[in-house]
Amino acid sequence: MEQFAAVKRSKDGQAVRYLIVDDSVFARKNLARMIESFGGQVAGEAGDGLTAISEFDRTHPDIVLMDITMPQMEGIEAAEKIVQAHPEARIVMVSSVGYQENIVAALQRGARHFVQKPVKPEVLYEVIKYVMGEDGLVAAAAGAGV
Amino acid sequence: MKMELIQPFINAADAVLSQGLSTTTRVGNLSMEEEGYRRKGVAGMVALTGDIEGRIILDLEPQTAVRVASHYAGADLPESDALIKETIFELANQVVGNAVCALNDQGFHFRVHPPALVTAPEGDKSSEDVEALMICFETSLGNVFMNVALRHNKRRLADHVKMGR
Predict the structure, then answer these.
(1) Cβ-based contacts of B109 with chain A (< 8 Å)
(2) Do A101 and B104 lie within an 8 Å CB cutoff?
(3) DSSP of chain B, one letter per residue?
């Protein structure tokens, strides 16, 4: 897999920590590999919305990558509950069901962005940089003292 | 079954497979399954409810499923690996998700259900309002079969007509 310039946390230069939420083990592994290619760290994984909420409380990740269609509790509802409890949470919805209504519903309930499956690493990388904003920096730029 | 309902699924499967397998795919045989669905190997089903309802099955012969899953995993997987089933599930999910996006743009609304494993060797026969189409996608790793059985939800269709949509 292509390697990207690492995205770090600007406050301490540490790796960005991710919570991956998807009922598909395949999708979680795939996203984990992409995250590693971005220089990130997987803080936790969950296979449904309910577990995602408890894993968020346990791991306090910098970014949540959240699927929509999942058993027990779907991703949009889980995102809403996480953002209600943690308004600073950065949640990126990652779903194959990327039609307008879903995207709008997710953004209205607190998600920061939406990425359609199949996920292209270069697209997710740009979204991660955008969502981290000033709280993230690209390692090469940090090395140059920017 | 109207081709305008099927075409988004063919386009989505073509796009998902060619991107994921880093290869060109060719749409091969397209046939009606009048005698009922016969499973070929590892098969994942995604059900749809809403304005259009039914199900889509992505079905791969066992050795093809192993090759496809190994390609995605970046390592050779044994035939018994649970990741093979998960890979087929996720591919089915992505095909359906991408197709319903296109249909949503045409005004159709859906709920997509989580994938399920098809274990029965045979499925229901086509009926008057539910026809099953089998489409074969030829890839460098083997053939991927997609079985599509959909119908308009008549009650919701009538509601839409009443509302002038």
Answers:
(1) 101
(2) yes
(3) --HHHHHHHHHHHHHHHHHHTTS--EEEEEEE-TT--B--SEEEEEEEEESEEEEEEEEE-HHHHHHHHHHHHTS---TT-HHHHHHHHHHHHHHHHHHHHHHHHTT--EEEPPPEE--SSB-PPP-SS-EEEEEEEEETTEEEEEEEEEEE-HHHHHHHHHTT-
